[in-house]
Amino acid sequence: MSNRFWFIGGQDGPWRVTGNRSIVGEGLADAERLNIRNTDTPPALSVTAWMLQGFTSNLRYATTPEVTSLRAIQPPLGRPEATRAALIPLKKSAVWWDMPQDERRAIFEEISHHTEIGLAYLPAVARRLHHCRDIGEPFDFLTWFEFAPEHEAAFDALLAQLRATREWEFVEREAEVRLTRE
Questions:
Q1: Cβ-proximal residues to 29 (8 Å cutoff; 6+ apart), any chain
Q2: Would 133 be classed as within a structural domain?
Q3: Does 36 map to a domain?
Q4: What is the spatial distance between Cα 129 and Cα 145, in angstroms, rounded to a whole number?
Q5: What is the pLDDT at residue 61?
Q6: Average pLDDT along the chain, 182 residues, taken 10 residues at a time
Q7: pTM for the complete prediction?
Q8: Within a domain: residue 30?
Q9: Which of 69, 96, 116, 142 has CB 3.0 to 4.6 Å from 130, enough for a Cys bridge?
Q10: Angstrom distances, CA of residue 174 to CA of 42, 137, 138, 169
């Protein structure tokens, strides 16, 4: 299995777009549906509103105890009851990327408590992070979330908590695409 994923907004796919908004900066064009392909080669599609790619990798800011905690309660994607999803593409500022890794880690975890916040919403909300900064994409990260309809309020609370942290002061572009699997 490839570690590269393609998120294709267009007219086809198992996910129906129920919301598409810009949080910071330019948003994404409107699309009716979302298709996700896990392949190393770009999908050959004739009609798309947008196509984003990213790859899965190691958890770059996480310590061993944090990774252990995440793996112990992180549910798998594709659960039958998880018929709601969100794709959150975001780009951080040059100021963020100019900082040494330890300074970014301090803001990410010691100040913003990113992992701790996320752990509080597991196992209700499953997620997978895709990196795309190093492959010429317009975003640095694509985060894919899945959850059951009864956990949508919890997901909204998760986003509100994360967006209120110091880490989000460095976000210069963020979109939010909400979806339903039919």
A1: 9, 49, 50
A2: yes
A3: no
A4: 9
A5: 66
A6: 91 96 97 95 82 85 76 91 98 97 91 91 94 95 98 97 97 98 90
A7: 0.93
A8: no
A9: 142
A10: 23, 13, 11, 12
Buried b / exposed e over 106-122, threshold 16 CB at 10 Å, is ebbbeebbbbeebeebb
In a domain, 90, yes or no: yes
Neighbouring C-beta atoms of residue 49, cutoff 10 Å: 17
For residue 152, what are the CA distances in angstroms to 78, 125, 141, 178?
Answer: 16, 9, 22, 10
Range of the domain at 142: 55-181
Question: For residue 78, what are the contacts with CB-CB under 8 A and spacing of at least 6?
Answer: 146
Which tokens belong to 126?
Answer: 């499953």
Total domains in the fold of the chain: 1
3-class SS string, the chain: CCCEEEEEEECCCCEEEEEEEEEECCCCCCCCEEEEEECCCCCCCCCEEEEEEEECCCCCCCCHHHHHHHHHHCCCCCCCCCCEEEEEEEEECHHHHHCCHHHHHHHHHHHCCHHHHHHCCCCCCEEEEEECHHHCCCCCEEEEEEECHHHHHHHHHHHHHHHCCHHHHHEEEEEEEEEEEC
C-alpha closest to that of 51 among 26, 76, 75, 33: 33
Rounded distance between C-alpha atoms, residue 45 and residue 133, angstroms? 23
At 65, list the tokens. 């105890």
